[in-house]
Design brief:
By secondary structure, the protein is of the alpha/beta class. The protein has 13 helices and 19 strands. Helices cover about 40% and strands about 20% of the residues. The termini are far apart.
Length: about 500
Amino acid sequence: MGLMRFASQNPALLTEERLDRAYVAGFDEIPTPGRALMSGDTLVVERADDSSGCFSIPWPIAGHGDWLIATASLMERERVYHLEVELARGLVFRLRDQLAAWQMLGLKVSDDVLTGVRDATRAFSRAAVRQATDRQGAAASASEAIRLAADTACLLVDLYAEQALALRMASGQKLTTLLGVRVNRVPQGAKARRLAETFNLINVPCGWGTIEPTEGNRVWHETDKPVEWARGAGLRVCLGPLLEFDDKRMPDWAYLWEGDVETLTSLMIGHVRATVQRYQGKAQLWHVASKINREKVLDLTDEQRLQIVATAVRTIRQLDPQTPVVVGVDQPWGEYRGAQASELSPIDFADALERADLGIAGFDLEMNIGYGPNGTELRNPLAFSRLVDLWNIRLDAPLMLSLAFPASAEEDPGADARYGVVAASEEDALLTPEFQAEWAARRLPMLLAKNAVQVAVWSQMSDSGPHPLPNAGLYDAAKKERPLLGVLSDLRKRLLA
């Protein structure tokens, strides 16, 4: 068994909830199974693997929330590591490394960024040399280095987005990227006009559990309505996911067939076939499946889920050869792998389907950012850039991003109880509608600047009525517009055709 040990000068931050979300990852940033626990005053990380790795843990950073930040690659040793110093080392290293990489590509760097990198490096240096003699002072310097590096990473991403977008739009042409929102009901009046002005794509869910609540009895009207509204408003339609590998999205009666892979496959493909036949010619994008990397849904193994998705894609291609098909994965960093063994990482699922040459047009990365335990951790914005680049290099396929971010940490009784807000605590009072809007205003341009990103969808239109994510909607529970919608509207006008 492999062990890493850390001492922290901020033990109050090492809560059980944070430790449950911590993990060690290798160079590919894919978590390996293990656990983090307190043994007296020492943080102990246990793994079956004894190779070196980067330890990641959610860490509060003033003005930014709880970022999942990582150490540099550490070997296992008897001597205890200083946690704050190692987290600062990892964050400063990644900042300097990304800056150098972008400068090699021609990025013109501002004085503010250079000053921030210099100050963060100096603060880390002070922490590193003090850790043997003044651990509390080292922790204070490390915390300063973390804050400075976080501030500078955000400035660097802003700079990258500005210059990358200017380069892509140098000819005067706006981006052809699709900007969408997922809706499950028809908006009315001024709200309908507002959404039609802001977005050029509407994502209409069409899951098996929704369409076929009882076996053999398909109910279409709740899907027909938003599809017809979107078409009438001149918007493109993304229909799906048709199959959601999620316990709550499967029809209850399907569990009668749990373990009978042949029957389940036939039933799922029957739903896919019926949906495509009904909406062929009305959808400009088929989202065939989501959360294909989820564990323990209808007792299906990784291989069985892949086979079902492959059969579904072939079925759509036979019925509708022209309309593009995308397949989605959940939690693309694979945070869940830190607590449970899984043979395939999220990108491995996509790679297996890509190698099968099924005619998949692209892959959807579902990132419910700042939610847990079934969401994506809030991270350094440079990590989101690296993720998109990694998927682009590995798969060489267009990407769709399904995004959400909370406007509040307060309880949301209409949301799926499996999701909690972990971007920041309610006591911090950091998460507000204005902070949500600022996050989108500063992060989405960087993602839209990536050539690989062809579609970006906000995953929740409204927090009124039943909805999956707490406080993520463009409209709040009282149906009032949040500032986020204004940000998305501005992005559409400035950047997108």
